[in-house]
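User: My collaborator and I are trying to settle a disagreement about how two of our proteins should look. Neither of us wants to argue from intuition anymore, so we agreed to look at predicted structures for both before our next call. Could you fold the first one, then the second, and keep them clearly separated?

Assistant: That sounds like a sensible way to settle it. I'll keep them separate. The first protein:
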Amino acid sequence: MRPLTLFTGQWTDLPLAELAPLAKRMGYDGLELACGGDHFNVQRALKEAGYAAGQRALLAEHGLQVYAIGNHLIGQAVCDLIDSRHQAILPAHVWGDGEPEGVRQRAAAELADTARAARLLGVQRVTGFTGSSIWHAAYAFPPTSQAYWDAVGQKYTGCDFYQSALTFNKKDTLAVLSKYGIPSAKSVYLRKGENINVDEIVENLGLPVFVKPNQSGSSLGISKVKDQSELIAATEIAFKEDDEILIESFLDGMEVSVGVIDFKGETIVLGITEIVPQNEFFDYEAKYEGASEEITPARIDAETTKRVEEIAKRAYDSLGMSGFSRSEFILMDGVPYMLEMNTNPGFSPASILPQQAKIYGISIKDLCGNEVEKALQKRN
């Protein structure tokens, strides 16, 4: 029977020391290490004695083998038509000055180094792909922002660049929405390197508090701090995800997730889903490993339902949104406090927004068809 392996390319935001035990619990026999995050660094393997052996030993501690290493992003630049998008996926020493032929040559050299590093790791396989001069026409990779499509005059579904960028920044989103009467938790904003006055923070916000990256998703880097002595460690965890963090006062209430879309010219609330996490809060495990219960519609009275719907629609319209959105609130004494807005929510059949649409009476086909029709009607 062939071993069951996990390619770690979609997990590089998670340190290998955390991913390894998780992969073992999920039933994997081994990993295909991505050359990204701290999973595997080709140049360190070539220059630092013991680095490759250390990565293998880390996996062995959890009963995992390493069967291959993957360097897909570097490989993408070998035969692709190089443009500004590639800078976001390539390390600085490969991107260099961005001159296309130089980028391709450095990418090819890096792949050769990857094969040498694989030998040091005791691995016989290097996986990847080499891009293509027609790749961009068949598949949207490297990834592009709405700003790129605006610049080339291409129509697309979902919200515009401004709304997408704004809502990924929690601090700025909440600041804008406060002008429209939408409340949120008291908070302290910090940049990496700034002095952290623990006593002052606790005096202003009380305990417990939530420490979270300002720009991050999937609840990565978020901690609930119950004791003052834990605060500095929590900020260090958050700063691993972003150079800006928020420390927010604790809101003791029900968490709800509210899907809002513009459907056939009207802003509608698809539903209000109650989030019941098994853990302290709706963290990564609760979101992606089933450690939560999602109840649609939420167990709230008619008056509270009306208030939440009104606030959610106001937030959506105030930001000039279009397309899908899912806003997160904490209900405290019947008042919805905004946590964040997600303009690119999960869209699998098990995800919250499609569940809400189904209960509302809108099929996935009609939901997507509506988005395509709106995109086609956009002006370039």
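The second protein, kept apart from the first:
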Amino acid sequence: LDYLQELGVTAVLMLPIYDSDYYHNYFANDFEAVDPEYGGKEGYFELLEALHQRGMKLFMDMEIHYVTERHPWYTDSYGNPHSPYSKYIIYNGPGNTEPESIIFGLTALQSYDGDVIKICTIDLGNPQVRDYLYGLFRYWVDPNGDGDFRDGIDGYRIDHIMDDLDWKGKQTNLLSDFWKPLFQQLRQQNPAVKIIGEQAEWGYGKEYFAKGDLDAVFAFPLYMAVGRFNKQDLMNKIDSTFLSTPAGKHQLVFIENHDTDRFASVVAENPGKLRVGAALNILLKGIPSIYYGQELGMKGVKQEWGPTDANDILRREAFEWYQTVDGPGMALWYRDSGPWWDLTNLRDDDGISLEEQQA
């Protein structure tokens, strides 16, 4: 946190921290538990307190459209139409044996460790599901319910938010019917709460501001234009981005994140382009957002090893604290776990580490 504060960071966005068998935690086994690898709830609240003591904010990333086969709603309702959770998950046909797929028609996804885990879609139109999820969101804003928000998070990033979930026509008008009422409740609870939406189609976000009343979206068209290095295209995207943003709303400006190739790899480590990208990231109108290690020039591109979440590991490698890969505290959870380790971008004495750059 001292290092982040030295960089001038004012808010931290963590990817999902609830219990999940996936390394990225985007598909939950249990929405209420904090992954023990992150220290459980005790560790999470310690982090939150430390951030607030520094005057920094914490945003929680939430993906609540899907659950894994290890979630209680699934384990109790699969093959059991009489389960109290039978209508929490969308099943096709009788018998509760054909759960609705997630995006791209997936019904399971292989984890980097080889474990194939089923994933299914929950029914956001079910009033009981809605009440549960609304309560979950309210909890993290004020965990002990005393009206003192110092122990609560400062806002949310809503992952994969869209009006028609996965473009299937089965769960529609979600922005106005599900998300906007939730955001209104959260603002009534704590007027300082901010909501960021990751618009699923990577557009300008006009619909999300108009129908969902989000506070901010991600400047995806601008991100794509920066990587192309076409001056006219970039100027057009800048104009279109901010003309699409109502007064009082915001665009988060970025040049890389956990779902994209690292900018240093995109520009083949060209020093001039790296500086231009950094300048645009920080100086354009909007809220600048940086991905950990971007400031060091960390590298990484997506690979293709079939339908597995391992494809993105090289975009999400351990932050390079030290000059050597074996430095103390390096988060090499994926070491020697598959072909991605053979392609790791982490190298000793390559100049891409905090230790070397601060020397």
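Some points you might bring to the call about the second protein. The chain has twelve helices and twelve strands. The longest strand covers residues 155-161.
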